Amino acid sequence: MNTLIAIIGLGVLCLLFEIFELRKAIVPVTILGLLAVLGLDASEFNAPEAYYNNMIIVTKFSSAFSGLFIILTIFLVALGHKFYENQPSKISDFIAIKVFLLAGAVAMVSFGNLAMFFLGIEVLSIALYILAASSRLSLKSNEAGLKYFLMGSFASGIILFGICLIYGAMGTFDVTEISEMSRSAELPVWFPIGIALVTIGMFFKIAAVPFHFWAPDVYEGAPALTTALMSTLAKVVAIATLYKLITVMNAEISEGFQHVIVIISMASMTVGNIMALRQVNVKRMLAFSGISHAGFMIMTLLSTTNAAGTLLYYTSAYALAGIAAFSVILYVCKNTENEDVTNFHGLGKTNPLLAAILTAALLSMAGIPIFAGFFAKMVLFTQTIQAGFIALVIVAVINSIISVGYYFKLILAMYTKEPNETRTGTPVVIYAVAVVAIVLNIALGMFPSLVLDLLAS
Amino acid sequence: MDTSLTLLLLLAPFIGFLFNVFFGKSIGKSASGILGTLTVATSFATSVYFFMQISQTHQAIQIQLFDWIQISNFKVDFGFLLDQLSILWLLFVTGIGSLIHLYSISYMHDDENMHKFFAYLNLFIFFMITLVIGSNLLVLFIGWEGVGLCSYLLIGFWHKNQDFNDAAKKAFIMNRIGDLGLLIGIFIIGSMFSTLDYATLKTAITGTTNLNITWISIAAFALFIGACGKSAQIPLYTWLPDAMAGPTPVSALIHAATMVTAGIFMITRLNYLFDLAPDVQNIIAIVGAVTSLVAATIALVQTDIKKVLAYSTVSQLGLMFLALGLGAYEVAVFHVITHAFFKACLFLGSGSVIHALHGEQDMRKMGGLKKVMGITFFTFLISSLAISGIPPFSGFFSKDEILMVAFEHNKVLWIIASLASLMTAFYMFRLLYLTFFNEFRGTAEQKSHLHESPSLITFPLIVLAILATIGGLISLPTNSWLNEYLAPLFAKASHEAHHFGTTEYALMAVAVLGGLIGIGIAYAKYIKQNIVPEEDSQITGFAKVLYNKYYVDEIYDAIFVQSINSLSKFFNQYVETTLSSLVFGLGKVTNELGFQGKKIQNGSIGRYLFAFVLGICAIITYLFLAQ
Amino acid sequence: MNVSLILIILLVGAFATYIAGDKLASKVALFFGIAALGCSVVLLNHFNLGENISFLSQWINQPHVSFSLNADGLSMAMVLLTAALTPIIIFTSFGTEHKNAKAFYALILFMSFAMVGTFLAADGLLYYIFWELSLIPIYFIALIWGNGDAEERKKAVVKFFIYTLAGSLFMLVAFIYLYQKAGSFLIEDLYKLNLSATEQLWIFLAFFLAYAIKIPIIPFHTWQANVYQKAPAVGTMLLSGIMLKMGLYSVIRWQLPIAPLAAKEYMNIFIALGIAGVIYGSIVALRQKDLKKLLAYSSLAHVGLIAAGTYTLTIDGLRGAVLQMIAHGFVVVGLFFVSEIIYRRYATGTIAEMGGIRTQSPKFASMFMILVLASVALPTTFNFVGEFTVLYSLSQINVWFAILGGTTIILGAYYMLKMYQQVMLGETNTKAFADVSLNEGLALVLIIALLFFFGLYPKPITDLITPSLENIIKVINRA
Amino acid sequence: MNNILNEIGIENYIFLSTILFSIGVFGVLYRRNAIIVFMSIEIMLNAVNLLFVAFSTYHQDAQGQIFVFFSMAVAAAEVAVGLAILVSIFRNLGSIDINKLKNLKG
After folding, report:
1. Most buried residue among A100, B539, B602, C268 by CB atoms closer than 10 A?
2. What is residue B584's predicted lDDT score, i.e. its pLDDT?
3. Do B612 and A210 touch (CB under 8 A)?
């Protein structure tokens, strides 16, 4: 709870800084603030508690994920420092929006009441709409914004409808009561329909097939930093929330529902990977790879009892790799009008370090050992086989093979092609973020237990 | 004592080889030559010593050096066995070996790589000794492959000429075909008797009854294939004539006297095994007889002096195999020895001729050398008489025994063999007359340089001629020293002096007569009528077939080499490409899918939302209406 | 003192090499390579004294993965092979200038680190991790320092990477499945499993896919020739000398003992596949125009025989296979180094452009000859020992296997001698060919010496590997 | 109030608002003018709001009505952002036909 309040306070602080013309200080202060919040969150980790008659319930789960979100936000804010340097007047707004977005995210994973859940999701979404469309003069950005907004609010409608039906069935928004009733009482049909609708809404947020169409376009159109945010933070938040929703609200998932999940997960991986093969725009490619990763993450919903740790691990691995990759992209595509692969030619020569980092990030996403990505997949497969879905795992494996295809396209571009332009300047922040992110990723790979055991049931 | 001497015997040539390889060039030609000769002479001396020893003690010497290869049911150790047979072989291998080394000093003196030549020769002797004295089949195999290697190196000694290299390659590969047979035989023996060691094997086989004869026969046959490869029997004989591409001393040493007798050695070694497989023995006998005849017929019309000798070698080896097949191992061994003497002499003689004519090998361009090359001619004459089986020369005794054995067993074989020896007499004297009699037919330039070869060359000739003359004494029909000497080797009692009656004398007479007839025809043709074989182009009819060796090479080439090459072509062009395109294909398909997928993502919000709604409906339907 | 030391040395070496910079890289790498070799020899000594040099420590709790390195005779033999070849391989590359050398040599060391790990790992997942890790460095070595047209190379290398990865991912699934059953990845627990025949079949096939691609066994070999040709000499040596041994080793260590029923059931099929590889590889090699490609196919033939040996499930088969692996490791490295030497002089791999070299460089010619003879398994060379044992084991299964597999000694001789004739013999080549330099000579002599020594006296290795192989046979015949 | 509900029956409210909701959905699917799409989305939301109220009465529980306020507020916020985006699009494109927005695809 305090975490949430603190975050919001920090957001307000950012706005105040604007008023007091302290723009220079904003980024550092926010980062410090967020670090403090992280500490706060850590302190709450072992003190699960419910606030405001169960509006917010802080659990291990929520605080662990909140921690992840905060870390990601720190990275994103840090990157913002460089990214917004040529529009200083807005920097505070952007930072503030990000912080509020974080607040929404935290609310989403620690909700105890569907109202809170709804608010959280809306805060997050609206903030994202703004960020997506944030570069006003670029039509691409606008289009991305509109697309995201239209479909997003459509999805919100669905979610809302779902919530409404649940409420209708249960007469309450309190998830604990709902789950109790869902076990005991004879349920009206609306309840499962409601659950289904909410789930679908969340599928949209994490861009699972067939609700994924917005993702590539929006990722491509939105400013790079926003894309980074969407593909890392937003996706992670959504899947975490969905996981929590499913686990909290109906303990045992019906046969049919499992089928749906399996099918959607298969479809997401396959479509995501296959579509990514022929992309030339790196952001777009990562969007599709994100879709396929969504497919992987969804697999956790099949073993709701013990997959929390796995999900946390997978998301952290994925998000950290994403951050690292995007920071390189930010550096490479700073002054280029698009983010095509051609911009990465010869990066291995011009900037070995960043090239290595990007390579590592991609390898992690591809699931090559010692990078966290590998263990994430490994553990995920283990659990899924335990749950008895070996076919799904086979499909997943085949997909990981396909995915290597496009990840390596980028690596090849960096190492075998001749550099086409010389980049100058070594932005310390980007280096720092990239290095830290990838180091964390590898550290997770070396010692998976650190995270895996965090939420071990 | 024995061990160290054995090692000396074995390693002396090897040291010579190493020395010649590393320092041969620096110490100069003659030096390296002498060194090479000395090392072999050392081995000869040692073998003589061992010979003395064993002829007193009659005790075979067993030496184990160390474990070599470990197999589940037995282990092969690196050991040597010096018994009557191996020592006998050692004697003439090293003896003739040293003579030929001596000969080569002078013969190869103009060659830039003389030191290498001697290195190879020494290496060959080393491997040959290994082959002979190995105490088990695998050590024999070392030598077996080793001599094959040396013959490869020496045939291709003048490696700038790709034809020679081809010949060398051919020899090696054909030998390898045999080697595979040998290996298979070894495998079967190994798994049947859990040993490859001669001594143990002998006890195992002779000691036990109710052995699985079928498998023994298969093993024996496999081994025989190996022998065919080394000893140039049908169907694996074609490499030997080509092997004449090598320097003449090599032909004398490897391709007449020693290496090619390895097959006979091996079969004699395992006589107790072959005795158990009568069918295989018959096959051996038949193959031997046929080979001798076929080779002899080919030799009738060859015009290259060395080719004639080569085919006569094949033919003589055929006779030996005939003897082996008839179970008369000691007879075969006897012929091996005498043959080693006179054939080495003949080759060296031809070498001396070629040397005199600066590399000319075509008999049509020779003649009348008798006057200038007295010694060569004389020794050559003796050896020819010997090979033609004219008493009292050595060849008469050995060949005669073979014929007798053949007569006892099977008249047909006897007829074939007699025919072969008749032809032998003919083509040998054809060779003799064409080379040494009448007028010189070469260029005037050559004529001017004609000379008798230096003493280093003639000396070995003389020695060998003497041996060829008196060699027969070691096994006289009535009391055969050789048979007694070899007796301990053989399971069955050897064909000891068949009571000498009229038939035997008659046979002898027939044989001698046959020889004389052959000589007579040759005389009539090449002295009386003074015919010179016509140019290749004019050869016609059956002669042409013979002249082209029944086109066997061509047939083999068509059947085996070509088919393998075309198969390889097929694999390379089709199979490989198909396989890789299959793998690539998967990637291509997925890529294409991605390409098509891009069309679906056409950027229209309407379509996206439509998919969205479809998704919702699908899920809801599945979940609630479908149940 | 335990085996993890050698891993540490190699890893540290990799970093040290990178830090040392382009100037010193090669020297530093060589130093650490030799250090690793020394270390492994010391370890061998400890091992022979009966000390326990294995290493085990908990790594991941959930799922239960432990960092377990187990050194038995087999592993030690393979480790020694790697540790011996690595410095030689590094040494062979002294003659050629590499751009960005520090990365190059660091990658070499890193690769041998991964491979040693693969040979030592006694925990399924750990093993898998090392197995995958070894793929990354060779990928970059071949990609960046390879020769030939860049696009072609890229295609070949990426194909190789994805193909091998594809295979091994199924192995991962198999391992996870086994984990479900055993509750641990530890090899001894996996050995204890008694799976149903069908399960075993699927596991066996999953493993087979991974190994058949890595070894490679036909028809999974399509990546090989191109990669061998395109990769730099060092890469090719690493691939053919050590990496493909990883596959064969894994067959013995993991595939057969874990799925013995399947192995026994379908033994003949897989033996036949291996032998088919022998014949096919030899025949395809006949018409190769590129030296390295020819060698690639020859090694396809040889490993085919080795694989056939392993699938006989007899002690002879396994022992022969291991001996042959080691022998082949040395020979093939030597031969590829020879091709590299020629490449340095003539800057071509096309056989047609060679010939008439022998007259100009007797030393080189002789050493090349010896290597050729070794690769056609002439007695007294190490290869003969291995090949003989393998063929013997095949003859025990079915004499026809031995005969067909034995064709290698005929066909092998055919294509190798043909190659030697075309490359070395004939009229003196117009292009000058300097005889081997000291470095080159040294490396070759070293290899040749080893081949002859063990050819005459394989006992040390045999004694080293036999007990562990017998254990594996025991495990295979359990239940 | 209460008895009215009983007379009409909660199902009918559900059907009604489902129909409204569907109308909104179809509006979103088939209209090309961004503004009208917005309005359709609003219809969807309001359909849900109606249902909320109905349910809250049905359950005799105020939470539902409170939630309506939430959703209204949220909707307002959404629209605010949405219109802002539309404005900037109109500035750049001179049109608000969503079919014209197809630059991002593939």
Report:
1. A100
2. 84
3. yes
Residue ending a domain, among A220, A252, A284, is A252
Q: What is the pLDDT of residue A457?
A: 56
Q: Provide the pLDDT for residue B408.
A: 85
Neighbours of chain C (3+ CB pairs under 8 A): A, B
Partner-chain contact C129 A369, CB within 8 Å = yes
Name the interface residues of D facing A (CB cutoff 8 Å): 10, 14, 21, 24-25, 28, 34, 37, 41, 44-45, 47-48, 51-52, 55, 58-59, 61, 63-64, 66-67, 70-71, 74, 77-78, 81-82, 84-86, 88-89, 91-93, 98, 101, 103-106
Rounded to the nearest angstrom, the minimum Cα separation between D92 and chain B is 18
Residue B611 near chain A (CB below 8 Å): yes
| CB contacts, 8 Å: B142 with chain C | 379-380
D2-97 maps to which CATH number? 1.10.287.3510
Q: Which of C160, C396, C410, C459 to mutate to probe the B interface, most B CBs <10 Å?
A: C410
Chain A positions in Cβ-Cβ contact with residue D106 (cut-off 8 Å): 279, 284
Question: Which chain C residues touch A375 with a CB distance below 8 Å?
Answer: 60
Domain holding A175, by residue range, is 1-252
Question: Residue B494: what are its φ and ψ, rounded to 5°?
Answer: -70, 155
Neighboring chain B residues of C305 at a CB cutoff of 8 Å: none
Domain boundary among A230, A252, A274: A252
Same domain, yes or no: A310 and A388: yes
Same domain, A323 and A410: yes
**pLDDT tens figures, B485-542:** 888 888 665 555 556 678 888 888 888 888 898 889 888 888 888 777 777 777 777 8
For B571-622, the pLDDT digits (tens) are 988 998 898 888 888 888 998 999 998 888 988 888 999 999 999 999 999 9
Residue A258 lies in a domain: no
pLDDT tens for residues A185-240? 677 888 888 989 999 999 999 999 899 999 999 999 999 999 999 999 999 999 99
Query: Structure pTM?
Result: 0.92
pLDDT, position D98: 86
Residue-range domain boundaries for chain B = 277-539, 573-625
Q: Is the pLDDT of residue B293 over 80?
A: yes
CB pairs under 8 A between A and B: 76
Q: Which residues of A touch B614 (CB under 8 A)?
A: 210
pLDDT at residue A248 tops 90:
no
Does an interface of 3+ CB pairs under 8 Å exist between A and D? yes
The yes-or-no verdict on residue B82 having pLDDT over 70 is yes
Instruction: Tell whether B72 lies on the interface with C, counting CB pairs under 8 A.
Output: yes
Do A427 and A387 lie in one domain? The reply is: yes
The complex's ipTM works out to 0.90
Q: Do C409 and B183 touch (CB under 8 A)?
A: yes
CA distance B611 to chain A (A): 6
Total domain count, chain A: 2
Mean pLDDT within B267-271: 90
Q: What is the pLDDT of residues B418-460, one digit of tens each?
A: 889 889 998 888 888 888 887 888 788 878 888 888 888 888 8
